[in-house]
Amino acid sequence: MEIAGRRLPEGSWWDWEITACDTGQLRLAAGYDLTHHHGLEVIFTDPLFVSCPPAFQDPVFRPPTPRETARLARILGEAAPVVVAFEADAGGREAVSCLVAAEALAIRPGLVRRPPRAGAEAAPGPREWPGPPLPTD
Prior knowledge:
Oligomer: single chain
Order of helices and strands: EEEEEEHEE
Region (Disordered): 115-137
Structural class: mainly beta
């Protein structure tokens, strides 16, 4: 799988979600199950245009069409350095078309643990010793 001409590392990148979005970055997390961790981050630096759902599955990345490129140039006033287009399953009957334009793109593989969701009770951690102290002679 490629994004903007850059190959993603091998892995099961089925589940995707936006974990940060502000004027400085758009951060997408990917993995096979985003409940407890993810194994890939795609970071768009200085996003100029973002049109995608907050969570999606099975994205099919592709080069932007001439129509999408022209639309972005009209909106932004110039060509964007990085443009990523893709179709994805966002839970509806049909795939949605998504488009992201940014100044730069970084791909970071590696395990990232996720904090528990708000309101979720944390599982009890292991105790140092499973019971009362052992008697000594």
